[in-house]
Amino acid sequence: MKKTSLAILVGAALCIGGGIWYFNHQGADKPRAAAAGKGGGQAPTSVSVVRPVRQDVPIVLQANGSVAPISSVELHPQTTSTIAKVHIREGQFVKQGELMFTLDARAESANVEKAQAQVLRDRASVLDLERQLKRSNDLLSKNFIAQGAVDTLQSQLDAARALLAADQAALRSAQVDSSYTVLRAPLSGRVGAIGVYPGSLVQPATSLTSITQLDPIDVVFTLPESSLSALLSAQKAGEVPVTALLADAGGKQVQGKLNFIDNAVDPTSGMIKVKARFGNTQTDLWPGQYINTQMTVQTLKDALVIPQNAIITTTAGTLVYTMEADNTAKSRKVTRVHAFGPNAAVTGLSGDEQVIVDGKQNLRPGSKVRLAEKRPEAMDQAATAGKPA
């Protein structure tokens, strides 16, 4: 019993001592915590700032497109015959009117000669009847023959003249048929694959080869309908230059001009079809090739440019925080006019503000701020504003 009582007394003493220690330390920590909380609410936020840059900002539209020839013709014979000679090679550049294929023309030549002979025969008949009619008119004036004989000769002459006209038309038809045996280039361009050889039997459905015009050439691409207004305004103002970037030629650029804007927006995709025409004497552009295009449709003169990551988007609109002279943050509403790369042209600022870039996520209007240690690149974010990506 004595040991039990002693244990109880020791436990009670430990409990009392622990309680006294807890209350003493709690009382000492409360003032420190309160002081820390009071000071923490007023601690300035570290921020980095940039000043807006005034400069001309080009509005550049970019799109991926494909190269399309202005004209491409597949060559077919217009008659059934055999190939007599092939005058061109695959991949050869030909000029309009250049001889390409010759077909067997023996039958057509014979038909032309036959038609020519019939014309000569009919012309002789007409001349003979004209002489007879002249003599008959002389005899009629002397009352040696009747009027009926003269009328008969006149009818015969009219029929002969009609027959001559018909034979002349037949001759022209035979000459047209004969011209089908010689195939010439309908346009200047590059010859495609040739699938026939001398002696091949060809028909109107047979494809001999194709010719594709390469200079000049078009690049076809699409733009969102939101760009249509600026695109039309630029076209009305004059020629719109277009740059084609050749990824497979070490970044080579080819200059062209806007040539066509479609008359309707695709209601499914919300895109509008556009074409640009390029000179292609060096054949840098090839039909079917994918190309990245750029065009400047407008230039914003003396625009204010700030980094895009300084702009905050809220339900009430877009705003930025600026660092005031008293080291407080102030919110200013801005309008993003044009975004390009990491920068944006805005309105709503005078240009003298210090726009907060880093640290803005913890700010409220009136918050205390201080400049963070300046990094070498901190003030260079707007330096490239005139170089759209």
From TrEMBL:
An example Gene Ontology CC term for this record: efflux pump complex
GO MF annotation: an example: efflux transmembrane transporter activity
Major location category of this protein: membrane
All residue ranges annotated as the Multidrug resistance protein MdtA-like alpha-helical hairpin domain in the record: 113-181
Domain Multidrug resistance protein MdtA-like beta-barrel: 216-298
UniProt-annotated location(s): Cell membrane
Region: Disordered, residue numbers: 368-389
Domain Multidrug resistance protein MdtA-like barrel-sandwich hybrid: 72-212
Keywords: Cell inner membrane, Cell membrane, Membrane, Transport
Sequence intervals crossing the membrane: none
Domain Multidrug resistance protein MdtA-like C-terminal permuted SH3 residue range list: 302-361
Record family assignment: Belongs to the membrane fusion protein (MFP) (TC 8.A.1) family.
Protein known as: RND family efflux transporter, MFP subunit
Organism name: Janthinobacterium psychrotolerans
